[in-house]
Amino acid sequence: MASLTRWLDRRRNPWKGVYHDAYRTWRRQKGQARLHQYGNLVPGDVVFDLGAARGGWTDTVLDQQPAAQMHLFEPHPGLADDLKRKFAGRDHVHVHELAIGANSGTIKLWDGGEASSPVRRHGKSVEVKSMSLGDFFTHTPVDLIALMKVDIESGEYDLLPALIETGEVSRIDRLQVQFHLFEPDMKAKRDDIRTRLNRTHHCVWSYPFVWEEWQLRP
Description:
- The chain is of the alpha/beta class.
- The chain has a domain at 42-158 and 179-193: Vaccinia Virus protein VP39 (Rossmann fold, 3-Layer(aba) Sandwich).
- The protein is built from eight helices and ten strands.
- The chain has helices at residues 2-12, 17-28, 31-35, 56-64, 77-86, 133-139, 156-166, 186-197, and strands at 46-50, 69-73, 93-96, 99-101, 105-110, 125-132, 147-150, 174-177, 201-207, 211-216.
- The strands form two sheets. It has a seven-stranded mixed beta sheet with strand order 3-2-1-7-8-10-9. The chain has a three-stranded mixed beta sheet with strand order 4-6-5.
- Helix 5 links the parallel strand 2 (69-73) and strand 3.
- Helix 7 runs parallel beside helix 8.
- The longest helix is centred in the N-terminal third of the chain and has 12 residues, at 17-28.
- The protein is globular and about 50 Å long.
């Protein structure tokens, strides 16, 4: 059924071909295993999970480095409450009910559960808290983020340019990002971000609109 859904999606939206080709390569090359290689983390390393959802990615990191300092960012109220219950009593796992974005304030989030998005419309919306990374650092000092995962349902197109413009992107050693392809113009937006990101980081590997990883340059 999943393969049929992807085939129909490609037929109806030919501009999504780059994603479907990359996803097929991702599956063939076992990209998920490459994504989840975190054995180089050491105790005390700071890890940010942007778009924490139900905490599955955080579980994967902690399985490999139980002493990582985890910061989970999840703006969806229901999911954030679930995360707080799940990680209650673990002092090195911090759950923040907010989105890290370009600016501090509030944003409209279209409620799709784990697929909630500021762009992709679902049945209803909710106002959620947003905070810039710079403002977050004012009350939670962090010198270096050893690893940051960004899976925020198209919010990356606002967040990453802001991090580049402020220079805060240079405080991220290893960046894993999932760009989303909800609209045709997102291909050009991704290209522009990658060009600018290349000034501070180099691309380790990339499966367009599936996952890619960037490493801070020496």
